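Course assignment 3, question 2. Fill in each field.
Student: A.L.
Task: Predict the tertiary structure for the chain below.
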Amino acid sequence: MRLDQTVSYILDPERLPVPATHIGHIANVLCDVIIAQFRPLHRQREIGDYVVLETIGKNNLYTTCLARHRLIHTQSRFVLKVYHFDIYAGPEERRKQQERILRDAEALHRLADHPNIARAHLPFPWQDNRIVLPLEWVDGYSLRGLLDSDEAVTFSRKIDIVRQVCEGLAYAHCNGVIHRDVRPDNVIVPANAPVKLVNFDCARVEGDDLQTIATRLGRQLDQHYVSPEVWRDPRAASPASDLYSAGIILFELLTGRPPYQKIREVIPARSLPRMPTEVNPDLPSAVDEVVSRMCAFQPGDRYENMTQAVEDLAIIG
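Answer field:
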Protein backbone atom coordinates (compact mmCIF):
# COMPACT_ATOMS: atom_id res chain seq x y z
CA MET A 1 0.00 0.00 0.00
CA ARG A 2 1.25 3.50 -0.84
CA LEU A 3 1.21 6.29 1.72
CA ASP A 4 -1.34 8.27 -0.30
CA GLN A 5 -3.76 5.33 0.00
CA THR A 6 -3.73 5.19 3.79
CA VAL A 7 -6.59 7.66 4.39
CA SER A 8 -8.97 5.63 2.23
CA TYR A 9 -7.85 2.43 3.93
CA ILE A 10 -8.32 3.84 7.44
CA LEU A 11 -11.79 5.26 6.63
CA ASP A 12 -13.09 2.16 4.93
CA PRO A 13 -16.47 1.62 6.71
CA GLU A 14 -15.96 -2.14 6.71
CA ARG A 15 -12.92 -1.72 8.99
CA LEU A 16 -14.43 0.76 11.46
CA PRO A 17 -16.59 -0.25 14.44
CA VAL A 18 -18.18 3.23 14.67
CA PRO A 19 -19.12 5.93 12.12
CA ALA A 20 -16.16 8.11 11.20
CA THR A 21 -15.79 11.74 10.26
CA HIS A 22 -14.19 12.17 6.88
CA ILE A 23 -10.65 13.62 7.12
CA GLY A 24 -9.76 13.58 3.45
CA HIS A 25 -9.33 17.36 3.50
CA ILE A 26 -6.28 17.02 5.78
CA ALA A 27 -4.77 13.99 4.04
CA ASN A 28 -1.89 16.00 2.59
CA VAL A 29 -1.05 17.48 5.99
CA LEU A 30 -1.03 14.02 7.58
CA CYS A 31 1.24 12.68 4.86
CA ASP A 32 3.66 15.59 5.25
CA VAL A 33 3.88 15.06 9.02
CA ILE A 34 4.46 11.31 8.73
CA ILE A 35 7.08 11.71 6.01
CA ALA A 36 8.90 14.40 8.01
CA GLN A 37 9.24 12.06 10.99
CA PHE A 38 10.93 9.30 9.02
CA ARG A 39 12.85 11.28 6.42
CA PRO A 40 16.62 10.62 6.81
CA LEU A 41 19.13 13.44 7.13
CA HIS A 42 20.53 13.57 3.61
CA ARG A 43 23.92 14.91 2.63
CA GLN A 44 24.03 18.71 2.32
CA ARG A 45 20.76 19.18 4.19
CA GLU A 46 20.71 22.36 6.26
CA ILE A 47 20.00 22.33 9.98
CA GLY A 48 19.73 25.92 11.11
CA ASP A 49 22.95 27.63 10.06
CA TYR A 50 24.73 24.30 9.60
CA VAL A 51 25.15 22.29 6.40
CA VAL A 52 25.16 18.54 7.04
CA LEU A 53 28.07 16.79 5.33
CA GLU A 54 27.24 13.26 6.45
CA THR A 55 25.39 11.26 9.07
CA ILE A 56 27.97 9.50 11.23
CA GLY A 57 25.79 7.72 13.79
CA LYS A 58 22.28 7.03 14.98
CA ASN A 59 20.70 5.47 18.05
CA ASN A 60 17.43 5.64 19.97
CA LEU A 61 18.43 8.95 21.53
CA TYR A 62 19.75 11.05 18.67
CA THR A 63 21.27 11.24 15.21
CA THR A 64 24.89 12.40 14.98
CA CYS A 65 25.98 14.42 11.95
CA LEU A 66 29.19 15.97 10.72
CA ALA A 67 28.50 19.52 9.55
CA ARG A 68 30.01 22.87 8.66
CA HIS A 69 28.70 26.30 9.63
CA ARG A 70 27.53 28.51 6.78
CA LEU A 71 28.96 31.66 8.39
CA ILE A 72 31.82 30.55 10.66
CA HIS A 73 34.97 29.49 8.80
CA THR A 74 37.51 29.54 11.63
CA GLN A 75 36.34 26.05 12.62
CA SER A 76 36.07 23.71 9.66
CA ARG A 77 33.76 21.08 11.16
CA PHE A 78 31.19 20.62 13.90
CA VAL A 79 29.42 17.57 15.28
CA LEU A 80 25.63 17.93 15.59
CA LYS A 81 23.59 15.80 17.95
CA VAL A 82 20.00 15.94 16.72
CA TYR A 83 17.66 14.85 19.53
CA HIS A 84 14.05 13.83 18.79
CA PHE A 85 10.93 14.50 20.86
CA ASP A 86 8.07 12.04 21.11
CA ILE A 87 5.53 13.65 18.76
CA TYR A 88 2.61 12.12 20.68
CA ALA A 89 3.62 13.48 24.11
CA GLY A 90 1.58 16.16 25.86
CA PRO A 91 3.04 19.54 26.87
CA GLU A 92 4.21 18.40 30.33
CA GLU A 93 5.89 15.27 29.02
CA ARG A 94 7.55 17.26 26.23
CA ARG A 95 8.90 19.67 28.86
CA LYS A 96 10.41 16.75 30.77
CA GLN A 97 11.85 15.32 27.57
CA GLN A 98 13.51 18.65 26.83
CA GLU A 99 15.06 18.74 30.30
CA ARG A 100 16.45 15.25 29.82
CA ILE A 101 17.73 16.03 26.34
CA LEU A 102 19.53 19.13 27.56
CA ARG A 103 21.42 17.08 30.17
CA ASP A 104 24.35 16.65 27.79
CA ALA A 105 24.44 20.38 27.06
CA GLU A 106 24.15 21.31 30.74
CA ALA A 107 27.03 19.02 31.71
CA LEU A 108 29.29 20.18 28.89
CA HIS A 109 28.65 23.88 29.50
CA ARG A 110 29.71 23.41 33.10
CA LEU A 111 32.96 21.90 31.79
CA ALA A 112 33.68 24.20 28.87
CA ASP A 113 37.11 25.34 30.01
CA HIS A 114 38.99 22.03 30.20
CA PRO A 115 41.24 20.81 27.36
CA ASN A 116 40.29 17.14 27.88
CA ILE A 117 36.52 17.65 27.49
CA ALA A 118 34.86 18.31 24.13
CA ARG A 119 33.41 21.81 23.94
CA ALA A 120 29.66 22.29 23.43
CA HIS A 121 27.99 25.24 21.72
CA LEU A 122 24.54 26.54 22.54
CA PRO A 123 21.71 24.12 21.67
CA PHE A 124 18.82 25.29 19.51
CA PRO A 125 15.36 23.99 18.52
CA TRP A 126 14.89 22.72 14.99
CA GLN A 127 11.59 21.93 13.31
CA ASP A 128 8.75 21.05 15.69
CA ASN A 129 10.22 18.12 17.58
CA ARG A 130 14.01 18.34 17.60
CA ILE A 131 16.77 19.97 19.59
CA VAL A 132 20.23 20.28 18.10
CA LEU A 133 23.42 20.35 20.18
CA PRO A 134 26.50 21.52 18.23
CA LEU A 135 29.78 20.13 19.54
CA GLU A 136 33.45 20.61 18.90
CA TRP A 137 34.69 18.27 16.17
CA VAL A 138 37.84 16.43 17.24
CA ASP A 139 40.00 15.11 14.42
CA GLY A 140 41.14 11.75 15.73
CA TYR A 141 40.30 8.12 16.49
CA SER A 142 38.00 6.99 19.20
CA LEU A 143 40.03 5.03 21.73
CA ARG A 144 37.95 2.01 20.68
CA GLY A 145 39.19 2.44 17.12
CA LEU A 146 42.76 2.69 18.37
CA LEU A 147 42.39 -0.47 20.46
CA ASP A 148 40.92 -2.36 17.51
CA SER A 149 43.66 -1.24 15.12
CA ASP A 150 47.15 -2.64 14.66
CA GLU A 151 48.78 0.69 15.44
CA ALA A 152 51.72 0.40 17.81
CA VAL A 153 51.35 2.59 20.92
CA THR A 154 54.19 3.05 23.40
CA PHE A 155 53.79 2.30 27.09
CA SER A 156 54.25 5.96 28.01
CA ARG A 157 51.60 7.02 25.47
CA LYS A 158 49.09 4.53 26.87
CA ILE A 159 49.66 5.83 30.38
CA ASP A 160 49.37 9.41 29.15
CA ILE A 161 46.04 8.72 27.43
CA VAL A 162 44.52 7.42 30.67
CA ARG A 163 46.13 10.24 32.65
CA GLN A 164 44.41 12.79 30.40
CA VAL A 165 41.09 10.96 30.75
CA CYS A 166 41.49 11.17 34.52
CA GLU A 167 42.41 14.87 34.29
CA GLY A 168 39.15 15.54 32.44
CA LEU A 169 37.15 13.46 34.92
CA ALA A 170 38.78 15.22 37.88
CA TYR A 171 37.63 18.55 36.47
CA ALA A 172 34.12 17.19 35.85
CA HIS A 173 33.87 15.91 39.42
CA CYS A 174 35.02 19.24 40.85
CA ASN A 175 32.18 20.86 38.89
CA GLY A 176 29.47 18.48 40.06
CA VAL A 177 29.34 16.19 37.00
CA ILE A 178 29.77 12.39 37.02
CA HIS A 179 30.18 10.92 33.54
CA ARG A 180 28.84 7.39 34.31
CA ASP A 181 29.69 6.04 30.84
CA VAL A 182 33.49 6.14 30.70
CA ARG A 183 34.58 3.67 28.00
CA PRO A 184 36.84 3.67 24.92
CA ASP A 185 34.01 4.73 22.59
CA ASN A 186 33.66 7.98 24.56
CA VAL A 187 37.33 8.95 24.43
CA ILE A 188 38.75 10.64 21.31
CA VAL A 189 42.51 10.43 20.73
CA PRO A 190 43.88 13.01 18.25
CA ALA A 191 47.38 12.60 16.87
CA ASN A 192 48.75 15.94 18.08
CA ALA A 193 46.17 17.39 20.45
CA PRO A 194 44.75 16.64 23.92
CA VAL A 195 42.63 13.54 24.48
CA LYS A 196 38.92 14.43 24.70
CA LEU A 197 36.07 13.00 26.75
CA VAL A 198 32.75 13.03 24.87
CA ASN A 199 29.12 11.89 25.28
CA PHE A 200 27.79 13.08 28.63
CA ASP A 201 24.27 11.75 27.89
CA CYS A 202 24.39 9.46 30.92
CA ALA A 203 25.96 12.06 33.22
CA ARG A 204 24.65 12.86 36.68
CA VAL A 205 24.67 16.59 37.28
CA GLU A 206 24.81 17.84 40.86
CA GLY A 207 21.48 19.19 42.11
CA ASP A 208 19.42 17.46 39.42
CA ASP A 209 17.55 14.28 40.27
CA LEU A 210 15.93 13.75 36.87
CA GLN A 211 16.47 10.42 35.19
CA THR A 212 18.91 10.63 32.32
CA ILE A 213 17.74 9.87 28.80
CA ALA A 214 19.63 6.61 28.91
CA THR A 215 17.93 5.48 32.13
CA ARG A 216 14.50 6.47 30.80
CA LEU A 217 14.96 4.34 27.69
CA GLY A 218 16.35 1.39 29.61
CA ARG A 219 19.74 1.57 27.94
CA GLN A 220 22.29 -0.71 29.59
CA LEU A 221 25.71 0.64 30.45
CA ASP A 222 28.60 -1.41 29.07
CA GLN A 223 29.35 -4.13 31.60
CA HIS A 224 33.00 -4.27 30.54
CA TYR A 225 33.60 -0.82 32.06
CA VAL A 226 30.81 0.03 34.52
CA SER A 227 31.63 -0.34 38.20
CA PRO A 228 29.92 -3.14 40.19
CA GLU A 229 27.90 -0.72 42.35
CA VAL A 230 26.55 1.17 39.31
CA TRP A 231 25.77 -2.10 37.54
CA ARG A 232 23.54 -2.97 40.49
CA ASP A 233 22.04 0.53 40.81
CA PRO A 234 22.75 3.40 38.33
CA ARG A 235 21.87 5.86 41.08
CA ALA A 236 25.01 4.76 42.95
CA ALA A 237 27.23 6.58 40.44
CA SER A 238 29.96 8.64 42.07
CA PRO A 239 33.46 9.92 41.27
CA ALA A 240 34.70 6.52 42.48
CA SER A 241 32.66 4.72 39.80
CA ASP A 242 34.18 6.88 37.04
CA LEU A 243 37.59 6.05 38.53
CA TYR A 244 36.82 2.32 38.28
CA SER A 245 35.88 2.67 34.60
CA ALA A 246 39.09 4.58 33.84
CA GLY A 247 41.05 1.77 35.52
CA ILE A 248 39.42 -0.81 33.25
CA ILE A 249 40.42 1.30 30.23
CA LEU A 250 43.99 1.37 31.56
CA PHE A 251 43.97 -2.44 31.90
CA GLU A 252 42.73 -2.88 28.33
CA LEU A 253 45.24 -0.41 26.90
CA LEU A 254 48.13 -2.20 28.61
CA THR A 255 47.07 -5.76 27.80
CA GLY A 256 44.93 -5.51 24.66
CA ARG A 257 41.81 -6.85 26.36
CA PRO A 258 39.52 -5.99 29.28
CA PRO A 259 40.04 -7.95 32.50
CA TYR A 260 36.71 -9.77 32.13
CA GLN A 261 33.87 -10.31 29.67
CA LYS A 262 31.02 -10.46 32.18
CA ILE A 263 30.77 -8.39 35.33
CA ARG A 264 29.49 -11.46 37.15
CA GLU A 265 33.14 -12.58 37.14
CA VAL A 266 33.89 -9.67 39.50
CA ILE A 267 30.92 -9.59 41.88
CA PRO A 268 31.32 -13.05 43.54
CA ALA A 269 35.11 -12.69 43.83
CA ARG A 270 34.87 -9.00 44.85
CA SER A 271 38.00 -8.24 42.81
CA LEU A 272 39.34 -8.30 39.25
CA PRO A 273 39.98 -11.87 38.07
CA ARG A 274 43.53 -10.98 36.97
CA MET A 275 46.08 -8.16 37.01
CA PRO A 276 47.80 -6.64 33.94
CA THR A 277 51.16 -8.36 34.56
CA GLU A 278 49.41 -11.76 34.55
CA VAL A 279 48.39 -11.04 30.96
CA ASN A 280 51.58 -9.23 29.93
CA PRO A 281 54.55 -10.14 32.17
CA ASP A 282 56.70 -7.46 30.47
CA LEU A 283 54.75 -4.69 32.20
CA PRO A 284 56.24 -3.06 35.29
CA SER A 285 54.74 -4.32 38.54
CA ALA A 286 53.70 -0.78 39.48
CA VAL A 287 50.82 -0.93 37.00
CA ASP A 288 49.21 -3.71 39.03
CA GLU A 289 49.16 -1.50 42.08
CA VAL A 290 47.62 1.42 40.19
CA VAL A 291 44.97 -0.76 38.53
CA SER A 292 44.10 -2.47 41.80
CA ARG A 293 43.64 0.94 43.49
CA MET A 294 41.51 2.28 40.64
CA CYS A 295 39.40 -0.88 40.34
CA ALA A 296 38.99 -1.99 43.95
CA PHE A 297 35.63 -3.67 44.43
CA GLN A 298 34.57 -1.39 47.28
CA PRO A 299 34.42 2.31 46.29
CA GLY A 300 36.00 3.27 49.62
CA ASP A 301 39.10 1.19 48.82
CA ARG A 302 39.84 3.10 45.60
CA TYR A 303 41.87 6.28 45.31
CA GLU A 304 40.18 9.06 47.27
CA ASN A 305 39.92 11.15 44.11
CA MET A 306 41.03 11.35 40.49
CA THR A 307 43.94 13.65 41.33
CA GLN A 308 45.64 10.86 43.30
CA ALA A 309 45.29 8.53 40.33
CA VAL A 310 46.70 11.22 38.01
CA GLU A 311 49.75 11.60 40.27
CA ASP A 312 50.51 7.86 40.31
CA LEU A 313 49.99 7.57 36.55
CA ALA A 314 52.47 10.39 36.03
CA ILE A 315 55.01 8.50 38.17
CA ILE A 316 54.76 5.17 36.32
CA GLY A 317 54.48 6.79 32.85
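Instructor remarks: The longest strand covers residues 50-58. Residues 155-174 form the longest helix (20 residues).
Grade: pending
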